[in-house]
Design brief:
single chain, 2 domains, 5-stranded antiparallel β-sheet, globular
């Protein structure tokens, strides 16, 4: 019988090694991501053998599991998850499942799972060097915006640390006021996750960058190493009325990642959630690959 519990900071000690062992380039395979969104998604975790099992949702008809993260024989773990769903009166649904994980299900239980495409959840993954150079005709506009931002010598970039964390939080409050977080349910939920990221920045091992114009913080970003060759950017905020602030913080943080983690080759900039503006922005950088996170439902 699986014993699920609410996710806590102390769980990072046993979960993170198993998540890293899975070596997946999807943003949901990150303890930091799970932790900062835990209240929004009612996240609970359990351990079986060398696997992390994640369950989200509180009502039987809304409970989803993640494909087990770790290493070893996954078959018995999946069977235990099915039993847990049965005991709790819920359908067995695996969300965020990648094509290679779906293939495992199809091998173990041919024809027993129905796959449902969820394009809104696909992660955008970019070559790190491309985010730095922004070379090529298709990224010419990004270079132009950055050039406009650099007009004059009144800009600077620095690493996000406990020393400037409070300034970035104040900037985030202003950003929320400008963008109406209080009246937009999705932004309100995101604001909760962002607040958690700031409150636990050091404990979660997060890194980040800060962009200034005239000494004022106009953009910040937060991320962490995800797997052997991929970094993940969890949060990126900039004032849209400051021309070039978004592409500039993106490029400068990519340079920071390259310097601190030379083994990294890609950056996962997470999903677009189906938001039109966000999708347009992520597509404009021309992703090199996508982490195709879909849903698998047990149909028996």
């Amino acid at each position: 019988m699986l014993e699920f519990k609410n996710i806590e900071l102390s769980d990072r000690q046993w979960m993170e090694p198993l998540l890293k062992a899975a070596n997946l380039d999807t943003c949901i395979c990150s303890f930091g991501n799970m932790f900062i969104w835990r209240e929004i998604y009612c996240t609970r975790v359990a351990r079986m053998n060398d696997f992390v099992i994640v369950k989200t949702g509180s009502e039987p008809d809304r409970i989803h599991y993640s494909f087990p993260y770790g290493h070893g024989d996954v078959g018995p773990v999946l069977e235990a998850m099915m039993q847990d769903a049965k005991e709790n009166g819920s359908n067995f649904v695996i969300s965020g499942i990648l094509p290679q994980q779906q293939a495992v299900l199809d091998t173990l239980w041919p024809g027993k799972f129905r796959s449902v495409e969820v394009r809104d959840d696909w992660d955008y993954i970019y070559a790190l060097d491309k985010l730095i150079s922004l070379s090529g005709k298709k990224l010419h506009g990004k270079r132009n915006h950055i050039a406009r931002f650099k007009d004059g010598d009144d800009w600077s970039y620095e690493e996000l640390t406990p020393a400037n964390l409070d300034e970035c939080w104040k900037m985030n409050i202003q950003w929320c006021q400008v963008n109406g977080c209080g009246s937009d349910p999705s932004l309100e939920k995101e604001a909760c996750a962002v607040r958690c990221a700031f409150q636990n920045f050091e404990a979660l091992g997060f890194e980040g960058g800060v962009l200034r114009k005239g000494g004022r913080v106009v953009a910040y970003t937060i991320g962490e190493p995800l797997c052997a060759d991929t970094y993940v950017t969890h949060i990126e905020k900039a004032f849209s009325d400051v021309q070039g602030a978004y592409p500039m913080i993106n490029q400068q943080f990519a340079m920071q990642i390259k310097a601190k983690h030379p083994e990294m080759m890609f950056v996962n900039r997470e999903e677009d959630t189906g938001a039109e503006g966000l999708r347009k922005a992520k597509l404009s950088y021309i992703s090199d690959k996508m982490a195709e996170r879909n849903i698998a439902r047990w149909i028996g």
